[in-house]
């Protein structure tokens, strides 16, 4: 199981005096006097990430170069710790190994001796780093940074002039991932999020899809569990790219993916029994709920998904996550989260439809409302092509099976005994389809993406799309389906195969047809 502690270790390792130095070039409204600065002091502070204190040694931290040890003059001095922290945060996101942060401060402590002043300045180094790691809601900041770095060594140089302290903090950082690995992760994550197709889902549906993806695709890294030299196991990179990680990797990836879709989440440090462990909380309708994708990984039903504290057995939070301040900021639901009444509630009869699938709720909705019954009792066959007969029947059932008025059947390939007979006649008399030609509907042909979107558009009364710019390079402006595609795009029924392609000629599989219907009617 993953290893970390909550106690932070700060070691003062070197304190030395350097000779006098000339005025620095700095930013800020206060201009140093022309007089020479007082004596410059340089101190090195070592900090180990408290989450990993029991698996990290000082020797694991990168060493500052000689030039960084002797640095005292920053190129810019920030007027507050928050501003300095913001700059440090931006550099950590880029995985910069050396981060130089300047701070100008009037240290108000009359009568303080030199040692006390130095300790105040050292404390500010820790404050800057702590504030750089606060939860901001940005998916690549906050806990995403906090749980994926080892620690730092900071060279602190400062001098005073006109009662103002000019302090240069030069942090030498040690991370678990490189900038190149983060770029690779960003690319892969964008592909996964596109596959999950979360844009049209509720927060509950989004979280189910994210949670299901992680549980289905990430395995626990038992191979490196006891290998303290292999730090990548703690990262979202290992979980997403290598498909194996320890609990931190699971939880960091869930944090990142949740925030990517606008669902607030945090990582919680604590214990599972006597073993250090990490998991998540996520917000649903104003309250937070526990999730442990590590423990639910590989399972078909989830015991640790959106649970209240009383029903989240085996987990004990560290003290930092039980304070009144934390609980006030992240209030927990009193009961396990239950989706609102308009969420699908039917039991899933299909063994080939999983909660992590983008079409899960659409299939359950369609099944619950009698729109689909599956290929057999236990299989929906979501990747099978949808025929024109099926698409007409699905649309007809979604419209409450209206009785066709016409008794004249124009299609010689549609018989009264066919299950789709009334559906096709209804669609024909309402101008939804005119067939492949005057006498053939071709019910067994696969419906294309352009055809089904057009069926939906016509059933809605052929509304004029308001969008003025066509995002799809493969949808010409003069086709019969052009307005239908633009209408479906602006109404979030489809966003295309990617940002610039709709792929109108591609077959529309059963999962897509049901998803289009679900989004249209919901």
Proportion of helical residues: 25-40%
Q: Widest sheet: strand order? A: 1-2-5-6-4-3
Strand content: 15-25%
Helical stretch tally: 16
Q: What gyration radius follows from the Cα positions, in whole Å?
A: 30 Å
Largest sheet: 6 strands, mixed
Q: Mean pLDDT, rounded to whole units?
A: 87
Work out the number of β strands.
13
Order of helices and strands: EEHEHEHHEEHHEHEHEEEHEEHHHHHHH
How does this model look, in words?
With 522 residues, this protein is of the alpha+beta class. The chain is built from 16 helices and 13 strands. The protein has helices spanning 66-69, 81-93, 114-132, 143-146, 179-196, 203-217, 236-242, 247-260, 293-296, 324-329, 360-368, 388-398, 421-429, 449-459, 482-490, 510-521, and strands spanning 9-18, 40-48, 77-78, 98-105, 149-161, 164-175, 219-220, 244-245, 265-272, 275-284, 287-291, 305-307, 316-317. It has a 6-stranded mixed sheet, with helices on one face. The chain has a 5-stranded antiparallel sheet with strand order 12-11-10-9-13. A two-stranded parallel sheet has the order 7-8. It is elongated.
Q: Which labels suit this protein?
A:
522 residues, alpha+beta, six-stranded mixed sheet, five-stranded antiparallel sheet, 16 helices, 32% helix, elongated
